[in-house]
User: Fold this.
Amino acid sequence: MDEQRQQHPPTDLAWGLTAFLLGFGLYYLVSLVIVGFLPAPSGPRSGARLVVPLVANLFLGLVPWWFSRRRGRGVLADFGFLPTRRDVLVGLVCGVASVVVGLIIAMVVAQVIPPQASPITSHVDAWLIGYVAFLVIGAPVTEELLVRGALWGALERYQVPRLTILALTALIFAFLHLDPSRLASLFAQGVAIGAARLVTGRIGASMVAHATNNLLPGIVTLAAT
Assistant:
């Protein structure tokens, strides 16, 4: 038990809230710029139209990483960034739970609110592979650094109850995706992914859970082309 506690990141991230707000703001600002300069596709998204919008997502992780490097002790010490064996095991369990609960809620909600279709290219190429790779690897890193890294650490510093932090970060995670039809399922998935962070005290576990959750959409995307 003492060894596990020593692996937990510190809870004195005084800069965590600033990093979260700045990262969150830059994400939406860059997204608006990209939308403004990238014409809407007349058909399925393909090529650069698949990958360029992902540039905005990078700021979700770059800002907390920069703050951690300049004002903290680095992402390994501040967030527990590198997954341990326990992180992997807990992350896999929470990730599978996230997939199951997300599918169940999505099917229920779809009876009331039809999901918004977002057609993409119908053939496999380097752009699509890059898109899926970011979905499974990149997004779990950037989003976890921001939401369950910087924001979670800041809320812990202000002694917010851990279950409240779990719910708040899940809600932020859901709104981050800007998809009202998936809000309920994304919130539930955020709770499941956040549970990995709650149990281990490290985002290494929540990154594994997040990647596990995103693996199914990635496989479906490739299989549907």
